[in-house]
Specification:
Structural class: alpha/beta
CATH class of the largest domain: Alpha Beta
Largest sheet: 8 strands, mixed
Shape: globular
Oligomer: single chain
Helix content: 40-55%
Strand content: 15-25%
């Protein structure tokens, strides 16, 4: 990034202002109405945000006031978000999947003054919990649907109020931007935690801008040319502080896709150049492609695997900066024309970088996408460090690691293996939780991540597991369940795995099936049993004896947010899984010895 104004911005409000000044005619984002895509320039975006900021002030928002946002990932969220930040407010995101009770906790905990919602249905849920959210005095409805309530105003009306204030000289966009200071709270990211109530991670403007700069500087982005899909929840740190703010910093166009089920269709239609997702997204793409190959005639299956092998060899040659020679280049060219390019076309045809974070991903999936000629970048970070602390780069990566530290980030490994981080992007603390803050951030400024990892001689970090997730068997062996779960999930038929065995004599697994694969391939119960048994057997071959799965059970449904077994960020709550499936878990351990071998 060579533009001094952007590089030297000290607040998110200033960063966005500088982006609009730098590339006013570039497309900031596109959104869909019916079948039509509408494009908005950076200047148009800026006009809306300036009006929103002045509108918030006209509504009485004061610097430091909290604005809660509850809705899908849409342009309206980002306009109100940036408007509130420019007016000096602090954003607290609420997941679309949160229950009214969970939403009420967040609004009450942060003492939100304003709540912005996307639909009348969600507005009515919010109004129904008013007694639990007394701090909220104003509701803003994104849609223009009429709603007769004294405390409810439409977003259109807020923008009209802001426009009037700007035109009359009662407010100035630049003056509002200049009034925001780096130490002001910008975002409250409520961790979805696997136990207890969520905690509000406080990120200041400095935290957010510093992390943005650390991630984006030196990357191979082209302003006004590169594009991506905005679909992850805005309440998650990855979409909010990394993707959303990062797009502003780098000048990347966003295609908004509030319906996650339509991401594949949008990818094909809009052909983005980059894509940021979580492992589950890539696992599904990988599964879908392999399932289609399994249904193809034998000759096409052989062609696919030959082409994929050629692609992987070329990726390895390129990574090592080795010339493969003219004969292999010709071979790879044929493989690309016949197979690899056609698979890339399913992803839009222009994807050059895929990024994954938030959870471990199988290295075989990384190799798969690299074989297609697409850079696959694994990153690592926490809400508490602003979003990203480590990242592989297209020109400097190591498969199986989450990369090296980003600029300005320090990392060290504690004696017990915990990853510690220190940077200007590390959070201010947990809102209303001084004890938890003291546990997470020590007196020297080191953030205790709770993750176990190791750094190799070249500075690449490998995360082995969560500190709290480590199992200690009855035999005293420490086991990282994530590694075992990834091995079992190499079978495309497996969608989710939870390995258990803390204080037990052996490990067991609860396994769920990918329904789309079962349906597409018309698998019988016998075929399913055989493939799952083979998957567990194959995984065990790569594990020490004490790490091997001795018993398992295939469940009749997937773990879900609705059942409380997963967080909104798709992390599995092991304690809830055990509680919900206690009879099955007990049977895996309590069955007579002669019966145990038949369990599966």
């Amino acid at each position: 990034m060579s533009r001094p104004g952007l590089r030297n911005s000290k607040t998110i409000a200033e960063l966005f202002y500088q982006r609009v000044q730098a590339t006013p005619e570039c497309i900031a984002y596109e959104y869909q109405v019916g079948e039509t895509w509408n494009a908005v320039t950076q200047q148009g975006y800026g006009d809306s945000v300036a009006r929103a900021a002045a509108g918030f002030r006209a509504l009485g928002l004061k610097p430091g006031d909290r604005v809660a946002m509850w809705g899908d990932t849409m342009p309206e969220w980002t306009i109100l978000d940036l408007g509130a930040l420019t007016a000096g407010g602090c954003i607290a995101g609420i997941y679309q999947t949160n229950t009214p009770e969970q939403a009420a906790f967040i609004m009450s905990d942060c003492q939100a003054k304003v709540l912005c919602v996307d639909t009348v249905e969600r507005l009515e849920l919010a109004l129904a919990i008013r007694k639990d959210t007394p701090s909220v005095t104003q509701y803003i409805l994104w849609s223009d649907e009429p709603y007769g309530h004294d405390d409810v105003v439409s977003m259109t009306r807020v923008l009209e109020m802001g426009k009037a204030a700007l035109e009359s000289g009662a407010a100035s966009w630049k003056a509002l931007v200049d009034a925001v200071s780096p130490d002001m709270f910008a975002v409250l990211v409520y961790t979805s935690g696997t136990t207890g109530n969520p905690k509000g991670v406080i990120l200041s403007h400095e935290n957010c801008v510093y992390n943005c700069r650390s991630i984006m500087e030196g990357q191979d982005f082209v302003e006004g040319v590169d594009s991506t899909i905005a679909f992850l929840p805005m309440s998650h740190v990855a979409e909010h502080t990394c993707n959303f703010f990062g797009r502003i910093y780098a000048g990347i166009t966003a295609y908004f896709c509030p319906d996650m089920l339509k991401v594949g269709a949008v990818m094909k239609e809009k052909s983005p150049t980059m894509f940021v997702g979580v492992p589950r997204v890539y696992e599904k793409i990988h599964r879908r492609i392999l399932s289609a190959v399994d249904q193809a005639p034998p000759n096409k299956q052989r062609l696919f695997h030959w082409a994929l092998s050629a692609g992987r060899q070329m990726a390895d040659f390129n990574a090592k900066k080795v010339n493969p020679g003219p004969m292999f280049r010709l071979q790879h060219s044929v493989a690309d024309r016949l197979v690899l390019s056609k698979i890339r076309a399913q992803l839009g045809g222009k994807i050059r970088v895929l990024t994954s974070g938030a959870a471990p991903i199988d290295v075989e999936i990384i190799h798969f996408f690299r074989s297609l000629g697409i850079a696959f970048i694994e990153v690592y970070g926490l809400s508490e460090c602003g979003g990203v602390s480590h990242a592989n780069r297209a020109e400097a990566f190591k498969v199986g690691t989450v990369g090296r530290v980003v600029d300005g980030m320090e990392c060290k490994i504690a004696p017990d293996g915990e990853v510690l981080l220190r940077s200007k992007s590390v959070f201010q603390g947990y809102l209303n939780c001084p004890d938890a803050t003291g546990e997470a951030k020590d007196g020297e400024g080191w953030l205790h991540t709770g993750d176990i990892g190791e750094v190799d001689e070249e500075g690449y970090l490998r995360i082995t597991d969560r500190k709290k997730n480590l199992l200690i068997t009855a035999g005293g062996k420490n086991v990282a369940p994530a590694n075992i779960e990834i091995l079992i999930k190499r079978e495309p038929l497996v969608s989710q795995v939870v390995v258990l065995g803390d204080a037990k004599p052996y490990l067991v697994a609860l396994i769920t099936l990918a329904a789309e694969i079962v349906e597409a391939e018309g698998l019988s119960d016998t075929a399913i049993d055989r493939r799952i048994a083979q998957a567990v057997e194959e995984a065990n071959k790569h594990l020490a004896r004490y790490e091997q799965i001795k018993r398992y059970r295939v469940l009749d449904r997937e773990f879900s947010i609705e059942t409380g077994e997963m967080t909104p960020t798709m992390k599995i709550k092991r304690n809830v899984v055990v509680q919900n499936h206690k009879p099955i878990v007990d049977a895996l351990y309590n069955a007579p010895e002669e019966v145990r071998d038949a369990i599966g």
